[in-house]
From TrEMBL:
Lineage, uppermost ranks: Bacteria, Bacillati, Actinomycetota, Actinomycetes, Propionibacteriales
Name assigned to this protein: ABC transporter permease
Superkingdom of this protein's organism: Bacteria
Entry GO terms, CC: membrane
Keyword Transmembrane belongs to the record: yes
Pfam family, one: ABC2_membrane
Membrane topology: Multi-pass membrane protein
Key words of the record: Membrane, Transmembrane, Transmembrane helix
Record localization: Membrane
Residue ranges of domain ABC-2 type transporter transmembrane in the record: 27-223
Regions that span the bilayer: 44-62, 68-96, 117-144, 150-173, 185-204, 242-266
InterPro entries in the record: ABC-2_transporter, ABC2_TM
Predominant location: membrane
Record-level Gene Ontology MF annotations: ABC-type transporter activity
């Protein structure tokens, strides 16, 4: 699709608000439509709403100490919400819209490809933020310590960006809604097994641990541990320059995954149904 733009702009200051308003009008309409579709799809809504709390409840039952329970609750609820609210549900949403030719009609109109692909994420992001807030509130109620609360913000924001981009990328090679259960399963399993989500990474060989910290879910779990316990990836207490360096090391993998997945997703996305 070729988009032509005006070559002369006599008054950029007056044209900028109009362009901004046009974006919000387009994107707001897309988000409103996606929100209505999500509410009407009881299966997708049930998966997004019920799955993370169920998983968090199952894993939290393994911890007896109240303070440790708060950490486990935050890790499992935030992590499972990223996988099942944002990632899986968004992949199925994008694939379903493509099969119904909705995306093809939209891309021929005013919205940009990025607006079309990000619109389904907005209502899911709201659900994710609500569930993350519940996890943090539960940790506060249990008396869990907060060594660096700002790290929770980095975990939630960084994780949301990473897994939204991964959903767009995964949708490029997922043929049908039914096959989404298979195409998303490898990344979900790897995230659950190699992030500290279900098993402590310390029981794994050193080379596997180093590799795991570059996966898309592990930095989220690392930042949650840093937020509550003030410890780095090796379990050491952090302060000063070591804290800055460790935090940077946790953020970097999420930035790389977000950039690469979004680039691959936008470059390779197919708007026609995959045969």
């Amino acid at each position: 699709m070729t988009i032509t733009t005006a070559t002369t702009r006599p008054d950029a200051a007056t044209s900028a608000p109009a362009a901004r308003g046009s974006f919000w009008r387009r994107f707001g309409a897309l988000v409103a439509a996606e929100s209505r579709i999500l509410v009407r799809n009881r299966t997708a809504l049930l998966t997004a709403v019920a799955m993370p709390p169920l998983i968090a409840f199952a894993f939290s039952g393994l911890s007896m100490d109240r303070a440790a329970l708060g950490v486990v609750l935050t890790m499992t609820l935030v992590g499972s919400a990223l996988m099942f609210v944002l990632y899986f549900t968004m992949v199925t949403s994008l694939v379903a819209r493509r099969e119904q030719l909705v995306l093809k009609r939209l891309v021929a109109g005013e919205p940009t490809p990025l607006e079309i692909l990000l619109a389904p994420a907005v209502p899911l992001l709201v659900l994710f933020l609500v569930q993350s807030g519940l996890a943090i509130g539960g940790a506060v109620a249990l008396g869990t310590p907060f060594a660096h609360p700002w790290a929770l913000v980095l975990a939630v924001v960084g994780g949301a960006a990473t897994w939204t981009a991964l959903a767009i990328w995964s949708a490029t090679w997922t043929r049908t809604v039914e096959s989404a259960q298979l195409t998303t399963m490898p990344l979900i399993l790897v995230a659950m097994l190699l992030s500290g989500f279900s098993l402590p990474l310390t029981i794994l060989p050193d080379v596997v641990q180093r590799f795991a910290h570059w996966l898309p879910m592990t930095p989220v779990i690392d930042l949650i541990n840093l937020a509550h316990l003030g410890t780095g990836t090796s379990g050491e207490a952090l302060a000063g320059g070591a804290l800055v360096g460790a935090t940077t090391g946790m953020i970097l993998p999420m930035l790389l995954w977000t950039a690469l997945a979004l680039y691959a997703g936008l470059r390779g996305f197919r708007w026609d149904p995959r045969g």
